[in-house]
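#structure-requests
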Amino acid sequence: MNKHVLLVEDEPNIIEAVSFLLSRDGWSVSTHSNGHDAADVIRAKQPDVLVLDVMLPGRSGFDILEDIRSEGACKDVPVLMLTARGQTKDRERAERLGATRFMTKPFSNAEIIETLHELSGP
């Protein structure tokens, strides 16, 4: 496979678990843990798929998503948003801003693998 996923998440346990899981599944994984410069990192890395946490230090995942969707280079990157809050208003906001999928923590290993396979295409 060797597709590149960028995981923007601030919880060390989630970073470690998801990175291990995706690497084992054949993904090339990059990580970033703050919202301050996440949009710049996303632009620089140009991932095949972006996994973006909603609550990050510095800036929210919503703000970051809005930034990257407004520009050509990252406009079409599939984005899986993760959140500990599964409220309908959060899901609706993510969809309005251009998230491809929305997943509530905790999630199963199989669920994240299956979703990323769907988002990355053949």
